[in-house]
Amino acid sequence: MKRRYIATLLLLFGLSAAIAPAAIAADLTDVGFIDQSALGNLPAFVAANAQLNGYKNQLNGQFAAAMRGAKTDADKQRISLQFQQEFSDKQNELLGPLYQRTQLAIANVSSAHKLSVVVDKRIVIYGGQDITNDVISAVRSSAAIPQPQASPPASPIGFVDQSALANSADVKSASNQLQQFQAAQQPIYAKRFKDASGDVAKQQVMADYNKAVQDEQNKLLKPLVDQTKNATAAVARGKNLLLVIDRADVVFGGTDITQDVQNALNK
Question: What is the CATH number for 176?
């Protein structure tokens, strides 16, 4: 349940963290975008993921057998960590080289196009340079991809790692309080639901429960969302950024202001 509440907070952050002047549009000629789903559909990635899924299925059977032999919670934890590490190692073995080659391709294409930042295509509605085909051509080529000659130039596009912000002590505390509230309300509304007569009355009980949880969520989390929005805006203005987006949407370049926002929130 905690993940659900943190995900909700991230959604709220996402709605409020894009901070930009009204007139930005196509003036940002140094902004590129790429269709990452198209990269993921390249035969090399498809084959590697198929191998990884086969390995995972094999590992699941071994994991289940090992867990049946576990005698203590400590044994179960050790086994879980062991199998997680084995899967991670195989993932790095199969996909690591492909990711590295793709990142080099993106860096080289971005340098050739004089781009300071590349974002995921799904967040672009208008403007920017589409470098998807150029990157795909570079990845599929048999030639070695050289290291980029220079780092990307300073970008007017900033980003924050919202998952890091959502793991702050304040957010965790609010999420815990929300879970406690929900746990306390469930038996109350369960009794009301059981005593309700007819489908309409039962639906109303469910609606009342959902509203109570939503109201409590807004009470606990909205102040944190507002604080984060204000801190992000202040940092963005101080660094003369035109736009701030989520780290997950940045493929290459950009200006990372996560630590600056965290510092502002901790003052």
Answer: 3.30.910.20
